[in-house]
Amino acid sequence: MTYIKQGTSAFRKTNLALFAGGFSTFANLYCTQPLLPQFTREYHISPTVASLSLSVATIALAISMLLIGSLSEAWGRKPIMTFSMFAVSILAVLTAFVPNFHFLLASRILEGIVFAGMPSIAMAYLGEEMDPTSLGVAMGIYISGNTVGGLSGRIIVGTLTDFFNWRVALAGVGMLSLAASLLFWLMLPPSRNFEPRKLELGKLTKSMFSHLKDPALLCLYGIAFLLMGGFVTLYNYIGFQLIEPPYSLSQTVVGWIFIIYLVGTFSSTWMGGMADKYGRRRVLWISLLIMFLGAVLTLEPHLFIKVIGIAVFTFGFFGGHSIASSWVGRRATHDKAQASSLYLFFYYVGSSVGGTAGGAFWSNLGWGGVVGIIVCFIVLALILSIFLSKMTRLATQRRSNVPTH
Fold it and tell me: Which of 59, 350, 370 is nearest to 237 (CA)?
């Protein structure tokens, strides 16, 4: 097999294309997050209901990925990813013209379904095409594209909403995504190590459940659920706190606070490299402890300290996600797209569950309640990572004790 190695032209083109793909996907997926207070005022709904504009998209994405990941085993990686990107861009523009909140939710569900063509397949593509020694860096670069997309979507939407309105903002993100889709289509090399097979749903379902019988993969899926549940909860409701007294920040300023996402661009790549060098288990633990520290720092009323806490939390999250997601590709012995789809299924279910449930904690307990549920998620993720470490160590010891002849 021919693998793509770091330092080659193919490596640069692949990473540029997937960076654009991650950018487009996450700019659109999270573009409604800074609009939650706007929806609350305009449609006279609670913060919990407003959060559904994000949660319905992520849950639709999670469910669809289980099917799309399997379809890509038969239909190929690049064609599905390319279709997904162009379809998402068009739907994003159309969402700007919905007449009410119910239609907005319906449009977001459709977006969630077509979103599925990119994330899990991109991870499988990297797992198949990248040289193992370059996979950690490549996965980090891809996830950094997700980071920049999430950052840009929030900033663009927040700023354009203040200057025009949220409809103009959503249309602007959609047009930018069309340009990213074209770049992706032109730059991504075709698969070289992908072997298509007949679409046999019975066998694909059986192989999918075989992943769920692997305790180590189950731990990684649980970590994905908890990491994303805590992350989206923080970003969903920090805007509500910052637009209220004593901060009383504008939509534009709140949007620009998400520039903090740039630390995730650095941490996903840097900590992915550290994991390749020093071991995934150790660096994953460090990432979780960094998230814990950041969450606690956001309890400080001083705005500067609060923003530092968000930055620390974001740094830890993207580092942990980079390590866990690449670990799935290494752990799975077959049907890597399915294994990645399951990881992202739990990841986005965590987003939907945590992001919406956090609204009840915000409404009843304030920011302290939001931080409380986030800390619980992090502690549970740390426990799972300890179990994962023990299982990995035992598996390594068993392999080393196998006699050779």
Answer: 370
